[in-house]
Write a structure and sequence with these properties.
alpha/beta; nine-stranded mixed beta sheet; four-stranded mixed beta sheet; 296 residues; UDP-N-acetylmuramoyl-L-alanine:D-glutamate ligase; 13 strands; 9 helices
Length: 296
């Protein structure tokens, strides 16, 4: 089993020929509204690969929340909403995808509607073992660094239960040191910056906090790895075409954690993950590859 803990958003995605400049309007070629967010996209990736997956997150109430719930159910993600019954609403991301290159620009409210979860406040929904029911040795918890008040508590409990803990290190956050220290593996993005560390020192700095496996993706370039003290690279396949890079990093993390949950080694799981992520950029959105029936 895989449990993903972190952010879900409502993504409003528009494909444009070019990004608008100041005081400029452009006409979108297409529009979609569905869920997004690192943990949610990772969970959907895992279910598409056939691994039962639970998403522990904050959705809240209202019409936007209902869209998110319906879309998650359509992807067979087992949703646990710790904000059920509260007044919060899901975060909203506005995404502009440039048609010719697949590059995206994102504006998001993140988890601002759930300040208590972000700062360690009390939960409005189920707590404790209810969130990790059935989790034990061989299972995996994937964190995305958001909602740290929730994520840290869940990570500590997952370690007590013998599950592996993996972190999607998208960017440096105030709770990063504590969160990394609870992890067995960390997969960083190229945007991750460790205070005071540069270049290869970033891997060393993260490794020194406790994980046995640290990797850093770099777009189409090979993934850098520090695995139990051994350095190596994992090459990323070249996509046949780049349609949309939205959520490609989330796909890496979801596919990596799903493979680990199936018993793969860290290295084999990463090799598998970059193949799935390459397939993802050849289709629209973070889940277009799965909807098209592409199973790398």
């Amino acid at each position: 089993m895989l449990v993903c803990c972190g952010l879900v958003t409502l993504d409003v995605v528009q494909v444009v020929d070019e990004l608008p400049g100041p005081d400029q309007k452009v006409t979108a070629r297409s529009l979609t509204a569905t869920f997004g967010g690192p943990a949610a996209n990772a969970a959907a990736t895992s279910t598409a690969l056939g691994v039962p997956t639970r998403l522990v997150t904050a959705v809240g109430r209202g019409p936007l929340a209902e869209v998110v719930r319906r879309e998650l159910a359509g992807c067979d993600v087992d949703l646990v909403d710790v904000a059920a019954g509260g007044d919060g609403q899901p975060a909203v991301s506005t995404v502009l995808v440039t048609r010719a290159t697949g590059e995206r620009a994102v504006v998001s409210t993140n988890a601002s509607g759930f300040a208590g979860l972000a700062s360690g406040g009390s939960l409005a929904g189920p707590v404790g073992d209810d969130l990790l029911d059935g989790v034990g040795p061989g299972d995996v918890l994937l964190l995305d660094g958001h909602l740290p008040g929730l994520a840290l508590a869940v990570a500590r409990r997952a370690r007590d239960l013998g599950a592996a803990v993996v972190l999607d290190g998208g960017s440096w956050k105030p709770d990063a040191v504590e969160m990394i220290g609870l992890c067995d593996a960390v997969v960083l993005s190229a945007d991750f910056r460790f205070p005071g560390a540069e270049g290869d020192d970033v891997l060393d700095a993260v490794f020194a906090l406790g994980p046995e496996f640290v990797a850093r993706t770099r777009g189409p370039r090979p993934v850098e790895v520090l695995d139990a003290g051994e350095r190596y690279e994992v090459a990323a396949p070249v996509p046949a075409r780049v349609v949309d890079t939205l959520g490609a990093g989330d796909v890496v993390h979801g596919a990596f954690a799903a493979s680990v949950a199936r018993g793969a080694s860290w290295r084999r799981a990463l090799e598998r993950a970059v193949v799935v992520a390459t397939a993802s950029v050849e289709h629209p959105g973070a889940r277009g590859w799965a909807e098209a029936g592409r199973r790398p």
